[in-house]
Amino acid sequence: MSDATDARTESAPEASLEWDSEAPQDSAPDHPPAARLTRWLVSLVHNRDNGTLAELRRPRAKEDAHIRAGWYAPTEEQREIYEQVAFLFAVYHQGADRPHWGYDTLGAAMRRIGSRVGRGPKDAGASRLNARIVSSRSIPWRHLRHAVARLRSCEQAPPAWSQLVEDLVGWTDREAKVRYRWAVDFHKPWQADPRPARKPAERKTSTPTDQNA
User: Fold this and answer.
1) Of all residues in the chain, what percent carry a pLDDT higher than 70?
2) Which 3 state secondary structure label does DSSP give 96?
3) Please, what is the average pLDDT of the chain?
4) Which of 60, 67, 140, 141 is the most exposed place for a label (fewest CB within 10 A)?
């Protein structure tokens, strides 16, 4: 990227963590289920487990990787959300050598979509995509995938994966007001990001594009 804003793709404390080859469901039992899912996904990138990540990018095939991601869900009703967020994580990290834990809600993350000409509300594509997402009564998986793909192509940090899981679990909860919060985060007045600028994750140019069924 050519400017400091574009280079903010992960926080310093997160980038320094190391993980074992696997993060089974019963590891760190004091952590919320969404956090344990994220730990496992991050470990896949740390350990170059490209086979499992490739399986996660084929959501309709229901590979073993999707089933494993679903194990982290505390209830059967939430299984699809955990599987689909694992898919979004894998889409974002295709060809990446370092994991991105992400930060902020998806609404705030979408403010990073665009170019130096304009980002977030100043980018017509980001504004249209945000409007489609927050106006959807059911979880808009197709639009969420598009948002994550746009963040990846712009080399911008994704939303916090654990927060994304929790927000989607509460998507239809009127008290949670997830869609409203995302809309507010997307349109809030711009403020300088206090996070230090960091070099974006290098991507493997030889990694083929996975074909989704």
Assistant:
1) 75
2) strand
3) 81
4) 60
